[in-house]
Design brief:
11 helices, 3-stranded mixed sheet, 3 strands, globular, Rhopdopsin 7-helix transmembrane proteins, mainly alpha
C-alpha cells in the first residue's frame, strides 16, 4: 500500500546545475547509451541468429544482454532529457515506477549472473553430463526463476519504502529515484524500514555472492588435475564472468548493503551498475569470444 501525503512530484538535482556542464554530460551519456543498445542488441541478434551458438552459456548471455538494455533504459534516457530542462521533475507515480523497474531488472541481472556461474560450474566440473543437466527445459526454468526472483525483490522494495508517508523537501540529490534517496523524503523515522530494505537487498546479494564464490572454489579445485590447455580455457571463461560480476556486485553492495543514508559518491557509484556494466559486458563476454565473432561475421555477411 502506497502512503502518499503532500508529495506529488520530486525534483532531481542531477550531476550539475550549470547548463553547459549539463549539455556535456548529456552528450557523454547519449554516446554511452547508444553504445549500450547497439552492443547488447548486436549480441542478442548474433546469438539468436547464429547457427553455432547453441550452448546454454550463450542462451543465458542473450537474456543478460537484453536485461542490460532494459536496466540502463530506466534511468539514462530521462537523465539525457533532463539535461536540457531547467527543472528536472518526476511525478510520484513515475518515481515508484522507476524504482520498481530498476530493482526488477537489477534483481533479474543479479540472478542471471548467479545462474551463469552455475552453468560454468557444470560445464567445467561435469563436462560429460553437461548436456543432460543443462538441457533446454532446465535452462528455460532457470531463466524464468531469475525473472521471478527479480520481480519478487522489486515488489518487496516498493512495499517497504512506500509504507512511509512522504513529505518535504521533495528534492533528491540524484539523477533517478532509488530507495535510499527517497527515504530521505519520509515524514516518519525511516530507520526500521531502512533496516528492512538493507536486509532484503543484502540477503539477495549475500546468497548470490555465496553461490558465486562456492562455484569458483569448486571450479578451481577441479582444475588441478587438468592439462594446461584445459585450465587455460576454463580460467579464461571464468575470468570474463568474474569481471562482469565484480563490476555489478561491488557498486551494488556499496549502495544497498549499508544504512539508509545518501552519500556524495552515490551518483558516481550508481553510474557503474546502471551504465558502465551494460556498456562493457558485450566486450568482455561477446566480442572477445572467437565463436561469437565468427557468428557475428556470418550475420554481417548475410545482411
Amino acid at each position: 500500500m502506497v502512503t502518499m501525503s503532500n508529495v506529488t512530484e520530486i525534483v532531481f538535482l542531477g550531476f550539475s546545475q550549470n547548463r553547459d556542464t549539463q549539455k556535456v554530460i548529456a552528450g557523454i551519456f547519449l554516446v554511452m547509451y547508444v553504445a549500450i543498445v547497439l552492443g547488447n542488441g548486436l549480441t542478442v541478434m548474433t546469438i539468436v541468429a547464429g547457427r553455432g551458438l547453441t550452448s546454454p552459456m550463450y542462451f543465458f548471455l542473450s537474456f543478460l544482454s537484453f536485461v542490460d538494455i532494459c536496466n540502463c533504459s530506466v534511468t539514462v534516457p530521462k537523465l539525457i532529457l533532463d539535461s536540457f530542462i531547467e527543472r528536472k521533475v518526476i511525478s510520484l507515480k513515475g518515481c515508484i515506477t522507476q524504482i520498481f523497474l530498476l530493482h526488477f531488472f537489477g534483481g533479474t541481472e543479479n540472478f542471471l549472473l548467479t545462474v551463469t556461474a552455475y552453468d560454468r560450474y557444470v560445464a567445467i566440473c561435469k563436462p560429460l553430463h553437461y548436456t543432460v543437466i543443462m538441457n533446454p527445459r532446465v535452462c528455460g526454468l532457470l531463466v524464468v526463476a531469475a525473472w521471478a526472483g527479480g520481480l519478487l525483490h522489486s515488489v518487496g522494495q516498493i512495499v517497504l519504502i512506500f509504507q512511509l508517508p512522504l513529505c518535504g523537501p521533495r528534492v533528491l540529490d540524484h539523477y533517478f529515484c532509488d530507495v535510499h534517496p527517497v527515504l530521505q523524503l519520509a515524514c516518519a523515522d525511516p530507520l526500521l524500514v531502512g533496516m528492512l530494505i538493507v536486509a532484503s537487498g543484502g540477503s539477495v546479494s549475500v546468497i548470490s555472492c555465496t553461490v558465486l564464490l562456492a562455484s569458483y572454489v569448486v571450479i578451481l579445485h577441479s582444475l588441478r588435475g587438468r592439462t594446461l590447455e584445459s585450465r587455460r580455457k576454463a580460467l579464461a571463461t571464468c575470468a570474463s564472468h568474474v569481471a562482469v560480476v565484480s563490476l555489478f556486485f561491488i557498486p551494488c553492495s556499496f549502495m544497498y548493503m549499508r544504512p539508509s543514508v545518501s552519500l556524495p559518491a552515490d551518483k558516481i557509484v550508481a553510474v557503474f551498475y546502471t551504465v558502465v556494466t551494460p556498456l562493457v559486458t558485450p566486450f568482455i563476454y561477446s566480442f572477445g569470444n572467437a565463436e561469437v565473432k565468427t557468428a557475428l561475421r556470418r550475420l554481417v555477411g548475410r545482411k
